[in-house]
Each structure stands twice: as C-alpha cells, then as structure tokens.
Amino acid sequence: MTRIPAAADRRRLRFLRAVMVSAAVAGVLLVYGGSVVVRTIGLYDYVKSDGPGWRGHVLTADPELGLAPVPGATGAQILPLGPELPVRFDDNGFRVPVDDRDTLAGDGPLLMSLGCSFTYGAGVRATDTYVYLAADSLGGRALNAGVCSYGAAQMELLAGRLVPEYRPDYLVVQLSPWLVARSMTPFAPSYAGMLPAPWFYESDSVLLLHPPVFESGSLDLDLWRYRGTGRSLPDFLSFLWNVGIPMYAHDDFAMAVYGIRRLTGGLPSPSEDAGRIVERVYGDIAGVCEASGTVLIVLVLGRTCDPVDIPWNRLPEDAIVVDAHRAMLDSLAVRSPEEYDRAYAIWRGDPPVLVDRHPNERAHRIIAGALVSAVLSDGARTPPDM
C-alpha cells in the first residue's frame, strides 16, 4: 500500500477549506444580494406609485443636522393626484417663493421661523406658508428655516447659527409634541433609506446633544427621477444599480456599525425625559434671542382635533406663546377628526380625496392670523385657566 505524502494531505485540506469558505461567502453574498433586490423592488414600486416624494436635488446630508436644504436649489414636492409643487431655496437655505417678484421687501419686522414640515409648508406654496403671510400682513420680511423631518434638536442648533447672524425682530419657533419625540431617537422620518438625526441623551444627569450617528446614504441619490420613466427591466436594473445597491449597501453597513456600538456601550441611550428636552431647547433658544435683541414667539401647532397640552412650566417666562392650534379648533363648526381633516388637510382630485394631513392654505391663514395678532399686541404669556 502506498501512502499519500503528508504535504499532499495538507494541500488537499487547504484546498477543501478554501472551497468551503468560498462557498460560504458566495452563499452569504447571494442571500444578501437577494435581499437588496427584494427591497429595491419595493422601493421601485413606491417611486413609480402616486405617493409623495421630491423632484430634484433639494435636500442633502448634513453632519450636524442630519439633512439640510441645498443652497440655491430648485425642484418640486411630489404630491398624489395632481401637479407637482415647485420648491426653491435661496443661497442661505431658506425656503423662498419660486418667483422673485413674490419676495417680500417691506420695511416692517423681520420674521424668522423654525420648525418641521408644518413650518416649511409641505403641500403648499412658499407664498401660502404662515410666516410669509404673517410677514406680508405686517409689511415686513420672512425667513422660512423650516425643514421637513426636523425635530427640536435641529431647531436648537439652527437658532444658534441663524439668530446671531440675521438678528430677526421675531423668531417664531414651532412647538409640537412630535418635535420632542423626534429628538429622542437617532433617526428621522424618511421616504427612503435611513435618515440619522441629532438626538438627546443624559450623562451624569446632564442633558447632552449627540450628532447624527452617520450620514444619510439616500439624500444625494436621484431616485425620484425614475418617477417619470416607464416600467421596464432595463429601467429597474438602472434603478437597482444607481439607487438600490448604493443605498442599501451604505445603510446596512452603517446600521451594523451602529448596532455594534449600541451593544458594546459605545453609544448612550436616548433620553426619555421630554420635559427636560423642552426646557433645554426653548430655554437655549430664548438665551440666543435675548443676546440678539430678538423677541421669541413659541407657536403651538397640532395635527388632530384635540388641543395641544402646552408645557407652560417648561417654557421661558418671557416668550410669547401663541396657541395657533386652538385658534384652528375654535374655527371649526364641529370638532371631530373628520371635520378637522376636511377643514385643514390637503385634498386633491374630483371628487376630492385626502392626500396629505399637513396644514393646507386655510390652516396657514389661521396660523398667520394668530401670529399677527400676537405681534401687534406684543403678546402676553397668559396660560389658560390660570
């Protein structure tokens, strides 16, 4: 009997191991690649649907804010059942009218607004937003710094940047329950992909602000250009190559790193103390306003037929608190979810269909009226039933 040399045994063993490792890697890549294709199919179907979205590169990733307007960008907001809504940002990132002829140039007060899509004016034109309407009524100018998906953390950061630079006469800061909730999680709402955002955490009983855990991988991908192309295999393969693979590969790797950091204690847990967040955010903004000679207006906005529970004891004592949501409720003949949506949501089509629950033009007019009344009366902080 002849025996195979030991060296040959080792070579064969190494070869078998290499085959097994290669097969395992190929299997993992095949499964992962399949998952990317399946998820891309779902995203492709959504982009081809009549759902909301954006046309053009109007928002980009930001290492501090999570996302921010692209300076000087023009594009459109895509809404179901109707034409796209033109969108424009000026060179400083403020939302402005598409037509320069609509730009306010009065010598009255300068109003700056901070908030989420309710302040930005999702679903309405820039000239129909409450800050534009209020500034126009007062013969002044408007700086709309509202951005979709923003929370309380971004408002605090932006106030620190913008108020000392522009020194507005009035800073209108949105107060809504979801703004605080968004600052208690590392991720913001997004149409596609993960959207990291700044969030609050506690360390040694001190409330601190954590920057986004990574930069978004979807905002700079032009996925919405596929809204106008026909469905076909070449079109899908182009979408897979240009959108699906880069977005999911980026997000999956970043989320894996994020998960490991959470498991190993490399990242703190988000704060669950909403009251402390309110006190810090609006208190810090009040301090910035005081240093710049700006009057702070806290604008209460809700999105249901129920009143907003205002945390009076957490707000700065010298802030003007305008409960615009109560003004909207008081304008209803009947207070019910159906009546609220009928009056203040966005409807399109014939017959009209509810397509979006952001404030419509009528809602913005009521909000602007409440804001103007507060400015003209130089507002007083008077909690109800106190």
How are the SSEs placed, and which strands pair?
Elements: H1 6-48, E1 53-55, E2 59-62, E3 66-69, E4 74-78, E5 85-88, E6 110-114, H2 117-120, H3 130-137, E7 141-144, H4 152-166, E8 170-175, H5 177-182, E9 199-203, E10 206-210, H6 233-263, H7 274-292, E11 295-300, E12 320-323, H8 324-330, H9 337-344, E13 346-348, E14 353-356, H10 361-376
Parallel strand pairs: 6-7, 6-8, 8-11, 11-12
Antiparallel strand pairs: 1-4, 2-3, 4-5, 9-10, 13-14
List keywords for this structure.
about 375 residues, alpha/beta, Rossmann fold, 5-stranded parallel β-sheet, 3-stranded antiparallel β-sheet, 10 helices, globular, disordered C terminus
Q: Compute the number of strand runs.
A: 14
Stretches where pLDDT falls below 50 for ≥5 residues? 380-386
H/E element string? HEEEEEEHHEHEHEEHHEEHHEEH
> How is the largest sheet built, in terms of strand order?
7-6-8-11-12
CATH class value of the domain at 51-184 and 272-376: Alpha Beta
Determine the structural class based on helices, strands and strand pairing.
alpha/beta
